[in-house]
Amino acid sequence: MESFDYIVIGGGSAGSAVAGRLAVDGTRRVCLLEAGGTNDNVWIKTPGFMPFIPEKSNYKYETVPQKGLNGRTGYQPRGRGLGGSSAINAMVYIRGNRWDYDNWAAEGATGWAYDDVLPYFKRAEANERGGDDFHGAGGPLFVEDQKHANPASHAFVDAAAALQLRTNPDFNGERQEGFGLYQVTQRKGERWSAARAYVEPIRDAGNFAVRTDTLVEKLLIEGGRVTGVQVRRGGVVQSLLARRGVILSAGAFNSPQILMLSGIGPAAHLKAHGIEVVLDRAGVGGNLQDHIDYVSGWETESNVLIGGTLKGTLRMAAAMVEHRLKRTGVMTTCYAEAGGFWTVMPDSPAPDVQWHFVPAVLEDHGREKVKAHGFSLHACVLRPESRGTVRLGSADPAAAPVIDPNFLDDERDMAVMRAGVRLSHRIAEAPPMQAFGPRDRHPVDLHDDAALDELIRNRADTVYHPVGTCRMGSDADAVVDPTLRLNGLDGLWVADASVMPKIVSGNTNAPSIMIGERCADFVMQAERV
Ligand SMILES: Cc1cc2nc3c(=O)[nH]c(=O)nc-3n(C[C@H](O)[C@H](O)[C@H](O)COP(=O)(O)OP(=O)(O)OC[C@H]3O[C@@H](n4cnc5c(N)ncnc54)[C@H](O)[C@@H]3O)c2cc1C
User: Using a 6 Å cutoff on CB, does residue 90 contact ligand 1?
Assistant: First the structure.
């Protein structure tokens, strides 16, 4: 049977960082197992091709019908293939708020306060603006200013400023609050996924085995220790051994799924699926949190914004040529070009709403093609109170997990959402945006709470940040301890968005990579004990 020192499950944001860091000095035999392919193609690498990401690179999960969304089913894209969700995401580089990490530590994630995690964000980062107290310049993850932003994205920042909402040139610096253009995980105009950062540079190293198109079916467990994994590749089932340990980085939906398939989870639920219980852990698959998001949309008279008219299509065609030749221009767009953080509730300890400004009309996650030119303004609830679950739908490892984010279950989330949407409209009504001649695609009486709530419940959905389903903490119910070891088993760490005890106030790629960086350190520290 093939054996390695470490096996990392999942080559996404966190898994790429863990595997890369463990393998890079050549002293350990590391195997990275990834269900999807290499993602080495122009559709992934060209930022502007994001709406055309190949089917095989996205799990395209759906939620169960959501009571808080008037019974609608939510969409949950997740990246599949090297880079995971960092290969299909919007590339916005955000870490969250200092308060998030200080609060994690205060609630039991000992050693995860902001001052503890900042060195890992910096270690990961190569910011083109250079290093300073808050930024790294020598890491593998390239972070750049956008090479191109639509005039409307600049106007959005001006519109916020016209309302006295401060402009912020660096959301990851001293203060998060304010509005501005996002920095992006790109290098010279190409998407810079976690796999490009950590895995590709050492892919051919003799001590590093990167196995794509390999589905991990379950963990192998003997006498209270994880000894390896069972995989399926091209219809063949195989066992791989891990002498020193396994790191589970399959993401907020698939990490709890793999634990449950391995007999670790709520006992009654596992038994209902005919799975032998190894560890009865009620917390596995619980605590699901996600950023509920409402997209306001306007069509514009101006056609300088992105749109599917003849003029817009011709402009995109020219932009494709420019990008192939120079890696510049409109095709470097991350779509969510501008945005901001602001506090809408009086008692919030940190900004409670984030905006993403897209210089195009977005309907149904971009799945409904709209010809018109226009802009969309996402407002999401940064620290939702609603909690959901991930459960097994079947004992088949290839089946989708059952995802229930329980969106807008808590009335407090709706109160924040409402205030966020109202501010979206105030920004759109400010003179810099009015210059584009906008027409509201979903008009509503903003003073009428009931009407606004109804519109939100009919149209809101995720902004793609599920976390929390293998919660880290110091209490007995926590799934992993603050060194990311699974409570109750030896030889297993979990490192990905699933370990976040509470969702961070911002996008989740950089935090997941930071978690991967830290996990690699914990694994190496355990070698020295
Ligand atoms: C459409 C979209 C847009 C987003 N935009 C942004 C953004 O602009 N900025 C930002 O910061 N965040 C963004 N995010 C969120 C961010 O990308 C994710 O939170 C982050 O990538 C999660 O990292 P992870 O390591 O937890 O999981 P992932 O990166 O999802 O990695 C999990 C990996 O495990 C693999 N895997 C799963 N099951 C198995 C199995 N059984 N066997 C083998 N491999 C398996 C998967 O194929 C995948 O590669 C976005 C996400 C999406 C989907």
Answer: yes
Decide whether any atom of ligand 1 lies within 6 Å of the 286 Cβ: no
Residue 23: phi, psi to the nearest 5? Answer: -90, -20
Residue type, 93: Y
Which helix (H) or strand (E) is 229 found in, with range? strand 225-233
Per-residue model confidence as pLDDT tens digits over 388-435:
999 999 999 999 999 999 999 999 999 999 999 999 999 999 999 999
What 3-state class would DSSP assign to 396?
coil
Q: What is the dihedral of CA 155, 158, 162, 165, to 10 degrees?
A: 120
Radius of gyration of the chain (CA): 22
Question: Furthest-apart CA pair in the chain: how many Å?
Answer: 69
d(CA 330, CA 307): 12
Euclidean distance between CA atoms 240 and 5, whole angstroms: 11
Closest ligand 1 atom to Cα of 16: 25
For residue 465, indicate whether it is catalytic. Answer: yes
* Residue found by looking up tokens 């009428």 in the block: 448
Rounded-to-integer distance, Cα 189 and Cα 322, Å: 11
C-alpha 12 – ligand 1 centre gap (Å): 6
